[in-house]
Amino acid sequence: MKKYNTILFDVDDTILDFKKGEKEALTALFKELDADKKENIMDEYIKINQSLWRDLEKGKVTRDYVLNNRFYLLFQQFGIEVDGEMIENRYRYYLDLQHECIDGATELLESLYQNYRLYIVTNGVSKTQYTRLGDAKLEKYFKEIFVSEDIGYQKPAKEYFEAVINRIPDFDYEKSIIIGDSLTADILGGNRIGIDTCWFNPHKKDNDTEIKPTFEISKLSDFYKILDSNN
Ligand SMILES: [Mg+2]
């Protein structure tokens, strides 16, 4: 008998290449705003955005705060006052168009979905996530998609995972595993509810946290080995 029957998948930078899509959307946005010549604007945005999402994971700020203020804070650094919400809407328009898959993602999902129950666990904006998963033709592999915006909590909050578990029929902690690229959102979340975890670490970053994944892989195709060896 196989060990696992339920797999929780993160989306961004686990099955969809968010970093690539983000870069393309920002390039288009900054061009539209005539801001593409500003020095290091892309790197500055990434810095501000990452620190806001970290604050969100720690529960210090709300999701709306992050989305409505990241561009305001960015342009403030260049001495320009902007309507952060309006720019966020334009950014979202460009972001919704991006749906490039991570190498091996479609193949992995295609080969797993008939033998395992697959679910999406993602922090993000519902419309964006549904559009991108639909455009990438990945939606069909999942029994349900749990977006933090709909749940009202985000990974790694215990409340988020409890809501997810409540909606999965016959959820068995022993037979479930979460796979994702974020130690602080996916792996910590899995640890908190007590299920196995698989850290997808394609760039082989050092784990400089206290968070311990059960497994670590650098290619999605290595996930088969984990499932097989636990059969
Ligand atoms: Mg991710």
How far apart the termini lie comes to 6 Å
CATH fold naming of the largest domain: Rossmann fold
Q: What's the count of strands?
A: 6
Mean pLDDT: 95
Strand order of the largest sheet: 3-2-1-4-5-6
CATH architecture term of the largest domain: 3-Layer(aba) Sandwich
Helicity level = 40-55%
Our count of domains comes out at 2
Largest sheet: 6 strands, parallel
Bound molecules: magnesium ion
Q: How much strand?
A: 5-15%
Helix segment tally = 10
What oligomeric arrangement do these chains adopt? single chain
Can you walk me through this structure?
The chain has 231 residues and is α/β, with parallel strands linked by helices. It has 2 domains: 6-16 and 100-229, HAD superfamily/HAD-like (Rossmann fold, 3-Layer(aba) Sandwich); 19-96, DNA polymerase, domain 1 (Orthogonal Bundle). 48% of the residues lie in helices and 12% in strands. It is built from 10 helices and 6 strands, in the order βαααααβαβααβαββα. The protein is globular. The chain starts with 5 loop residues before the first strand and ends with a helix. The mean pLDDT is 95. The chain binds magnesium ion. Magnesium ion (MG) is lined by residues 10, 12-14, 180-182.
